[in-house]
Amino acid sequence: MKCPFCGHPEDKVVDSRESKEREAIRRRRECLQCQRRFTTYERIDEIPYMVVKKDGRREKFERQKVLNGLLHASEKRPIPMGQLESIVNEVESLVMDSAEREVSTREIGQLIMERLRAADKVAYVRFASVYLDFKDVNEFMNELESLLRHNDPGAAERRERQS
């Protein structure tokens, strides 16, 4: 903090307290060179983290929305709440570590799908069916076949032989 009187870069805090409105912290400072006192106010910068939707709209990131989507996809599945919480934490970290303070829903959806695919295949398919917005049964079947191939490379061959 530069002294407003002499420009010296060092000072000491003499007193610190919340402002009357409790929106800022009021600090009384003393310059280490000229010994004059001055007051500063510190405010928390609350720029929201944003999510860019498929249609280009921007919404404020809401952790609870991510958790609700995971809970819905994993309903009646044996996925521990701690694991879902861990996925939500990863998504939140992705958003907060973003340099632009915004992340596309595509990035968030991909991260969630990767984690669900490893955790529970049924929850993955449930989430993917909503997230990927399948237009018809064929798209849905292609995703299921891809999941089966990823799980068991020989499964597709066995199914073809059975047909």
Outline the secondary-structure elements.
Layout: E1 11-18, E2 25-31, E3 37-42, E4 50-52, E5 58-60, H1 63-73, H2 81-96, E6 102-104, H3 105-119, H4 121-131, H5 137-151, H6 155-162
What can you see in these coordinates?
- This protein is α+β, with helices and mostly antiparallel strands and 163 residues long.
- It folds into two domains: 1-46; 50-138 and 146-151.
- Helix content is 47%, strand content 18%.
- It contains six helices and six strands.
- It has helices at residues 63-73, 81-96, 105-119, 121-131, 137-151, 155-162; strands at residues 11-18, 25-31, 37-42, 50-52, 58-60, 102-104.
- The strands form two sheets. A three-stranded antiparallel sheet has the order 1-2-3, with no helix packed on it. Strands 5-4-6 form a three-stranded mixed sheet.
- Strand 2 and strand 3 form a beta hairpin.
- Helix 2 (81-96) packs antiparallel against helix 3 and helix 3 (105-119) runs antiparallel to helix 4 (121-131).
- It is elongated and about 75 Å long.
